[in-house]
């Protein structure tokens, strides 16, 4: 997974700064619920973030199932059960006594085989049932073609009915970059936000607007616990960009925003 660093905004003092946090779960500040469902939306490092959070939860003794409602790359060095129905996962876990022992945390990945070395999700009504077999169900609920920012189209993201929390992700490498090179579905920006984006650079304010908008990364999560995660805070320049995005989010959302670096230089 590489070297992980987690930051939140430190509001103390005249000049905004970031504070290092001990874990991603601590920084997110989500209330832990029984059979909790957490979905990841947006762009910029959702899969890496999801598995990092799964590892932390397992270290806390939690049973974690990881899946997707879109596609993810088949994870290496993870326990995977190929299934298109929740019942298949249930049957698989019957033979895993350690899963129900409660002595150690566990992680299981599930989905169906897809093209190009990927896993795809099972039907939403089947995925809904997976939370019954786990303490926490983590779902990658959005696709962005590995780009750091995304504007969702109609029907996106695919959030499960029982979702408790949503983590909206973006990569800080989008800031100061061309829309057409770093934002998935960038052509929707004019219709959704009224912005002229062709051959223009993405600003911190625009990234912040997308992240908190009910027509952007927060789409479908308006009634859920929502957190913002800025990935690729890998150096001082990226950290500075992250602070600028946090300032543009405003006080309400800046306190629910986390920055991460999984491959710090």
From TrEMBL:
This is Putative selenium-dependent hydroxylase accessory protein YqeC. Transmembrane segments: none annotated. NCBIfam families: selenium cofactor biosynthesis protein YqeC. One of its GO terms (molecular function) is ATP binding. It holds the Pfam family YqeC.
């Amino acid at each position: 997974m590489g070297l992980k660093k987690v930051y939140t905004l430190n509001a103390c003092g005249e000049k905004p700064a970031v504070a290092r946090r001990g874990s991603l779960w601590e920084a997110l500040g989500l209330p832990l619920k029984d059979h909790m469902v957490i979905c990841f939306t947006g762009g910029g490092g959702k899969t890496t973030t999801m598995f990092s959070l799964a590892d932390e939860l397992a270290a806390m003794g939690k049973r974690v199932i990881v899946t997707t409602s879109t596609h993810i790359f088949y994870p290496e060095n993870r326990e995977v059960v190929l299934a298109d129905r929740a019942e298949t996962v249930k049957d698989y876990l019957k033979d895993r006594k350690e899963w129900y022992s409660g002595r150690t945390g566990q992680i299981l990945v599930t989905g169906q085989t897809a093209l190009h070395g990927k896993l795809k999700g099972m039907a939403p009504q089947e995925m809904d049932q997976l939370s019954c077999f786990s303490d926490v169900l983590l779902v990658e609920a959005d696709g962005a073609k590995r780009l750091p920012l995304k504007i969702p189209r109609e029907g996106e993201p695919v959030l499960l009915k029982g979702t408790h929390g949503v983590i909206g992700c973006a990569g800080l490498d989008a800031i100061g970059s061309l829309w057409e090179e770093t934002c998935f579905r960038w052509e929707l920006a004019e219709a959704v936000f009224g912005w002229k984006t062709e051959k223009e650079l993405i600003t911190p304010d625009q990234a912040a607007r997308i992240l908190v908008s009910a027509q952007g990364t927060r789409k479908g999560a308006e009634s859920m616990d929502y957190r913002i995660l800025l990935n690729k805070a890998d150096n001082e320049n990226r950290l500075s960009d992250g602070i600028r995005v946090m300032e543009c989010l405003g006080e309400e959302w800046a306190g629910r925003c986390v920055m991460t670096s999984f491959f710090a230089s």
